[in-house]
């Protein structure tokens, strides 16, 4: 059979005693081709090594028009689509995924959503892989969401985004959207919608349940485990992507999830704010671009801070070791002198922990006490990514940024549940 003429079709490949079945795809290397197996992974073959190939099924894509049905008996939700795997599908011709062309293409893969709620409005501010997003995208997204939640007919908003920086977005929305009285639910998928093992359908069903629930605030919803049992609803400032590929990639950190969400019900786990239709969302999306997130490693030269000072940075979050430590002895590798120097020049230095779990405590060891005396702001159990976003938001308010005491006060104020005072050390 001709390989080139069958790209996109389902075939059988015989290699000695091994037989493989999947969709045939072109390969960037001459003399080879790829096979997308049923488990979603690609495997490469050298044409010369193939004993036998057989066409099993021709795959012809038929696009069906999906009719969005509105029922007066169901609550209304709004959908904000930003991109990511959940808004993408397999392109057999290139062995990767493409974003869906319009919302109707997306809806026909998720008909279960319409059994729970009406998708009254759909907004697509942009379509990007989340690795390409920055603070300008967070600001734009927050503005769209704030306008949607203030519409009386909208019960809640569901946001679809890629996983890689979803916890940055959830943090930004938690600070940017003030006085929320309705749910803003971010969800995702690790595997594209046209794969049998996709996590997209359950995640979206659970998100719809959360969006019409009595919850108010920013929530990340996704698989609780690798099975299709239920989802967790996690605070937007206490969540982190903890696995590169598992379906239950997002976990709560230093806090309990707010809820378990099944396809037909919600079980509350911990206290959360309740829906209040009288509240009006107030947009506060000020953000200082000149901030950085820096990871300390053994032997790191503190002169790295000179770069940020030279480039005009206003604030830096340093991921420190253990309870909040960086090198304080060893001559040129001691950070004490340089930390004092850059802070005197007006840069705000905050500390978060590399351990992810647990709380910083600079008072336990001499090292921590020395660093605390330089003026470093220790951010308790706040996640480093959340600290980065919060620092940009705080310094974006110029009236706050004028005072070192005010910045410290705001960074240590528990504004969106980012600090857990009940956490046992």
Textual characterization of the structure:
There is one protein chain. The chain is α/β, with parallel strands linked by helices and 425 residues long. The chain has 3 domains: 4-57, Roll (SH3 type barrels); 76-283, Rossmann fold (3-Layer(aba) Sandwich); 291-411, Rossmann fold. 23% of the residues lie in helices and 26% in strands. The protein has 11 helices and 23 strands. It has helices at 103-107, 113-116, 135-149, 166-176, 200-211, 304-310, 336-344, 366-373, 384-396, 398-401, 404-411; strands at 10-15, 18-26, 32-37, 42-46, 52-57, 76-81, 88-91, 96-99, 118-123, 156-160, 177-178, 183-187, 217-223, 231-235, 239-241, 250-252, 259-261, 266-268, 282-283, 291-295, 315-320, 348-353, 377-378. The strands form 6 sheets. The chain has an 8-stranded mixed β-sheet with strand order 9-6-10-12-13-14-17-18, sandwiched between helices. It has a 5-stranded antiparallel β-sheet with strand order 4-3-2-1-5, with no helix packed on it. Strands 20-21-22-23 form a 4-stranded parallel β-sheet, with helices on both faces. Helix 5 (200-211) links the parallel strand 12 (183-187) and strand 13. It is globular and about 75 Å long. The mean pLDDT is 90.
């Amino acid at each position: 059979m001709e390989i080139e003429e069958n790209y996109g079709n389902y075939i059988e490949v015989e290699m000695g005693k091994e037989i493989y079945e999947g969709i045939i795809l072109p390969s960037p290397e001459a003399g080879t081709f790829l096979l997308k197996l049923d488990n979603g992974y690609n495997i490469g073959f050298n044409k010369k090594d193939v004993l036998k190939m057989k066409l099993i099924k021709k795959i012809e894509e038929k696009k069906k028009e999906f009719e969005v049905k509105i029922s007066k008996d169901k609550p209304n939700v709004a959908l904000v689509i930003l991109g990511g795997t959940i808004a993408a599908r397999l392109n057999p011709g290139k062995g990767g995924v493409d974003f869906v062309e319009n919302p109707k293409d997306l809806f026909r893969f998720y008909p279960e959503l319409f059994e729970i709620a009406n998708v009254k409005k759909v907004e697509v501010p942009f379509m990007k892989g989340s690795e390409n997003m920055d603070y300008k995208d967070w600001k734009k997204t927050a503005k769209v969401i704030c306008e949607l939640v203030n519409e009386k007919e909208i019960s809640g908003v569901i946001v679809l985004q890629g996983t890689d920086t979803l916890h940055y977005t959830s943090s930004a929305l938690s600070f940017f959207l003030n006085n929320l009285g309705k749910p803003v639910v971010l969800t995702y998928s690790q595997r594209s919608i046209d794969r049998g093992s996709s996590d997209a359908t359950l995640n979206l069903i659970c998100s719809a349940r959360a969006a019409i629930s009595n919850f108010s605030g920013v929530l990340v919803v996704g698989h609780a485990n690798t099975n299709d049992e239920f989802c967790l609803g996690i605070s937007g400032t206490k969540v982190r992507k903890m696995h590169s590929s598992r379906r239950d990639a997002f976990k709560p950190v230093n806090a309990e999830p707010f809820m378990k969400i099944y396809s037909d019900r919600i079980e509350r786990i911990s206290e959360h704010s309740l829906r209040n239709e009288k509240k009006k969302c107030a947009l506060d999306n000020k953000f200082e671009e000149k901030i950085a997130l820096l990871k300390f490693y053994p032997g790191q030269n503190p002169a790295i801070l000179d770069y940020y000072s030279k480039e005009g940075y206003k604030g830096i979050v340093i991921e420190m070791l253990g309870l909040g430590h960086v090198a304080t002895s060893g001559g040129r590798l001691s950070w004490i002198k340089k930390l004092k120097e850059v802070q005197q020049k007006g840069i705000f230095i905050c500390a978060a922990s590399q351990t992810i779990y647990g709380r910083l405590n600079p008072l336990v060891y001499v090292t921590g006490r020395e660093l605390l005396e330089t003026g470093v702001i220790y951010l308790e159990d706040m996640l480093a990514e959340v600290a980065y976003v919060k620092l940009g938001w705080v310094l974006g308010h110029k009236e706050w940024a004028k005072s070192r005491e005010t910045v410290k006060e705001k960074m240590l104020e528990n504004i969106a549940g980012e600090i857990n005072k009940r956490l046992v050390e």
